[in-house]
Structures are given as C-alpha cells and as structure tokens.
Specification:
Helix content of chain A is 67%, strand content 3%. Chain A has 176 residues and is mostly helical. Chain B is 47% helix and 16% strand. The chains are: A mainly alpha (176), B alpha/beta (341).
Amino acid sequence: MTPAPAQIPPRKPARTGLGWLIQALAKSPPTPPATDLLFPASERHPTTETLTASCLIAAWSLAASLILCLHSETLPTSLPLRCLIAITAWLALIHSAVILPLLAYPLLRLVHLTPQKLATLTELTFLSILTLIACHLTTDPSLFARSLGLLWLTLIMAEIMLRLARSGIALASHPR
Amino acid sequence: MVANPARRPLRSPHHPFRQLIHRPALVPPFPAPTSRKFLSRLSIYGDFWPRLLSLAARVTPWFLEPLLLALYSTLFYLACGPARRALLHNLQVLFPTDSLLIRHARALRVIWNFACTLTDAAHIRANHDIIDWEIAGLDHLNTLSQIPTGAVILTAHMGNYDLAAPLFAARLQRKLHLVRAPERHQESQAYARTQRDHMNADWCVIHYNEPGNMLAVKLTSLLKENQIVAIQGDRILFDVAATTLPFSTSHDWHLPSGPFVLGLVSRAPLVPLFITRSGWRRYRVTAHPPYHWPEGRLDKATALRDAERWWSHLLSQTVRQHWHQWFVFEPAFTPTAAPPP
C-alpha cells in the first residue's frame, strides 16, 4: 500500500455509466481531508454513487413488488395480507441475490468461475430480473405502474448506452 | 448372598439395562444437547453470522450491500435486547436531553456503523483491497516509532482496529502485540482465530485475554523486550480488573485498570490511538501525544490515578465526538455515588 499526499486524494472512478456522466459533468473536486497521510485502496468507488444506487434499487423494487401484489388476481383480497406478501417477496428477491450464488458456487466453481466473476454474473442477473419486471409493469393498466416500468427501462437503457460510451472512449484513448 | 443384577431397580446406575441405555462414549443419550449446540451457533454470538458474512461479502452485488446492511442492522437492533438496552443507557448519559425516539435512532446508527465495520473486515479477509486509510497526528505516530523502549498503545472499541493494527505495525516496522477479548462462543472464537491468523501480517501478533493464560506476565516481558502492546482501554469484559472514574458530574464510568498497571510496571509510555470510520470504506487512524510516566521514584497509587484520569479525559472527548462508533454493548456508566456525610 503506497501512501498518497493527503492534499490531492486520487479521485474514485464511478462504477456505473450514470455515475460516470455525473462525475464528468460535476466540476467540484473532492474536498481534501484534514489528514496527514492517505493510504488509498486499489479498489475505490464513490460513496454517493453506491448509496444512491442502493436506495434507488431498493425503492424501485419495493414499489414494483407492492404494485404486482396489489394488482394480482390470484392473491387473497385482504389488503394487509397482500402488503405482507409483497414485502416478503421483496425480501426474498433481495436475498436471492446473495443466497442463490452461494448455493450455486460449488457447481459454478467447476467451470472455473471466480467469486469476482460470480458477483458480476449475479449483478447482471439481478438487473435483468428487475428489467423483466419493469417490462411487465409497462403493460399494467395503472398509470403509476406503467410510469414505474418506463422509469426503470429508461434508466437501464441510459446506463447501457453510457457504459458503452465509456468503454468506447477508454478504448479510443488507450495508447497502442 | 449375591444380588441378581437383573433384579436391581432400573433407577440404579448399575442395572444392566441402564448400562445398555447409557453409553455416552458411543452414542449421545439424547439429541437435545446436539440440537441445542447447533441452535446456539445461530445465536447472536454464534459463528453462523460471521461465516455467512464472510461468504456473502464475496458475492453480494455492490448496490445491494448498503440495503442489506440497513436491513440486518435493524433486525439485529430489534433482536438483541440486552445490547440495545445497554446502548440506550449509555446514550442517555451521553445525551441526557434527547427524547426516546432520538435515542433509538442514535442507537440504531451505532449498530449500522458496527455492521459496516464487520462487513469491511469481511471484505478485507476476502482479499478485497477496498479500504482507504487516513492518518491524523502523523507526528505522534512518528514519535511512537522513535520510542526506543516498549510502548502501550491505548485504543477504544471503535472502527476496525483489527484491520488497522497490521497497517501501522508495518508502518512502524515494529512488532505489534494486539490484546483482545475472546469471542463469547467457542465456535466463534475458533473461527475468528483462524480468520485473524490468516489476515495478520508478520508484524502483528494477537493475544487473547483468556482466563488462566497469565497474559499480564507475558505482556510485561514483551514490554521489557521493547515491543509494542496494543490494548483496548474502554471495555470491561469477563473478569477484567476495573477502575471507576468520573465521566460527568452525575455519572462515573468503569475503565480497565490493566493497561495502566502494565505501563507503570514497565514504565512504558502510553500512546492513545483511535480508529474511526470517516466514510464509506474509509477509516481514520488518529494518534495523540503519548503519556510519559514521571521520572524517578514515584508514589504508585498517585501515578496510576493520574494516568487513569488522563486517559479518561481523552477517551471521554473521543466518545462524545464519535459516539456513533463507540461499540460498547454493555452498560458503561453508573450514577455517581453520593459523597459520605
């Protein structure tokens, strides 16, 4: 670990395409910390981006789960029971992104899948599931449900485009 | 007349049937102790949760981590009644004017911070280099590296001292002996020991303050050999000797007296170091000026009292500033005893 001067802390690269765009547009440099020495980690990510993405995904998936359960024709008619089922389903969805990879890892290790690759695979699968839910919501008669579905599809499309743009710029500016 | 063994009452331990039933070496008599033992591993002090955390830290998508931390912090906050009550009690002393709702919010924040530090530690054990370390008070830290004798580093149960210890031991280029309390659960202790052994560098050795291991003698000899010993000076766990000191006008607190006795016996300077979370996956090591024992012959009781008061003052300042990272889940304060008439 190499210490860096505390006055010029290295900037944390964004994880997402949207975060990369916001970081490129925002002019304010990071505030120098009131410290004498800084040991930066090799893997660094912006705090605001992490927490914002987490809050966004949590709020969107909870809202989608509530809508799906409230509009479902097969569930019991009791409103509290439907809300309870929605929250349980939401918790199960969140936990499936942790438990299922853990259970599948012994099998996936046979195809030489490292934990890092497994985490990326989990991330993509989880986002794909949310995108499928968003597609389903866009066909809902309720305006709020359709708006929610469209919001997610817009965000995910923008994210894909920006990630492609970022990769393209990085590739173009890479010295040969 | 020889008694027929078959006619002995069944209650007798010598009855042949009884001997057939009770064969503890071969078959456990009832499954109950095993299942109880298994269930105890799921308890708050059991090894199930640290194991799950270690595994989950490897595969959890990054955007779900803050969400899961918030969920589990709330869950543990609701489930751990004694720890919650102790936190609320401690926060009541720190913030006497707070309403009950605000105090609960503060206590939940302490649990959230604790969950963050545990998760960060799990990441480091999974070889994820994700922690930014800041150092404040570099001059004092450099002073520590220049002290030719042994030194006692006094720290508090804040931040990730487990992870910080190898960092500054490597920086000081001196072997650091870290003293910590064992886990309360046997399996948890075994698991924690293997995890820490795997993580620690050559510069850092962990000693567990277990009953009967004569740790005080070992630490004194280490200090005499000019090595550095790091001890937590804010928690009374198990049968640690305690001293009572004033915290405020209305409350006293109990601090361990062992580090001061150790320092006095070896005349090693006391160096306060605090590790606090300064952001998401960012920690700050703050070094303060060391405490040197008076030269020459001294009244041991007075010298000990002075050192304890110096530490109490410094620790109370830090605790008031970083209350949300003071991970003491036992009641730390008692009302000040009324002076005798």
